[in-house]
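Problem 12. The chain below contains 348 residues. Write out its predicted structure in token notation.
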Amino acid sequence: MWVWLYREDGSRKYVTLGPSHKMTKAQAEKKRDEALAEVHARQDSSPDPDMTFGQFLDGVVLPFYRSKWKRSTASTSESRMTHHLAEFSKTQLKAITLKTLQAFLGRKAASELSRSTVAHLRWDLRAIFKLAVAEGYAQRDPSVSLYIPKEAVTEPTRAMTEKEVEPYINALNMRERVLAHLAIFAGMRPGEILGLQRQHVSGDCTAVTIAQRLYRGDIDTPKTNSSRRIVAIPPKTATLFREWMELVEEQEDAWVFVSENPKKPVWRDNVWYRHMQPKLKPLGLGWANFQALRRTHASLGHKAGIDPKVSADQRGHGIGVALDVYTKAALSTRAEAAKQLEESILAA
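Solution.
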């Protein structure tokens, strides 16, 4: 039997050319040359086995994900990847091991990065190596068994109590008071509020359509998905909202919350740092930013007995997120619950 032995990617391989009693040596060599041409063609079209992590990230990963990321996601994710993963830029993909990656996450956790950031880096590495294997740039995925180190710090989160809400609102000027009402009582995201135009607000201000959002000056599709949703506005908020809408220009595309330039909407950070936080700090509420207002909506709604699904639909996300991320039970509520459990079991 004529057999051609050769090596490819460091592995020994062979091709059976045919039985020697039916094929001359010259015929076997011709068939070997044909097989060799196929191997060379395969090697020419295959990914570079010596590609570095940085080359793969810049040349394959980021161009691929930019086509699916929203602008807001692209801004945060690309910045996180290029900054934190830079230490792997000159390392060959095939040389990176599970031990190397887990040690990297351990260092990031020890550097007091938040647990959320470390978790995102783990997700980034999983996505990068999954793509590397799918495209043939890596033979194995070293990220499959990565875990978030126990040292990763969980950032404390807070929500306002019922007693804090009214002083919070009363401390603000008219525009910011409307913003706070829409965030606390209607559960709207800041980008959704600041992305409102007159055409998105019902005539009586009892409902708004979320068709877009504002993120760092850019208009983008809603965060959760590209479809519109209707947000119900409660009566007292609607009354305040109507007063504000009387000051808004009549054109359908007029921004509801304009910046110093009447043709542009105000940015979230500008309205918070310039107009809200300075008035709230003296009350001890300078920590209650827009994220805290979103948690306040979820927590107080939960305490008021509002159906979690209804509350989640109002905010525009899944019920699991509502309960696990945004809902924060007050200490007094938890104390009462603990007392109720104790009394239900132990005799007086």
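Discussion. The first helix runs from residue 25 to 45. Students who got a different answer should revisit the alignment rule from Section 12.3.
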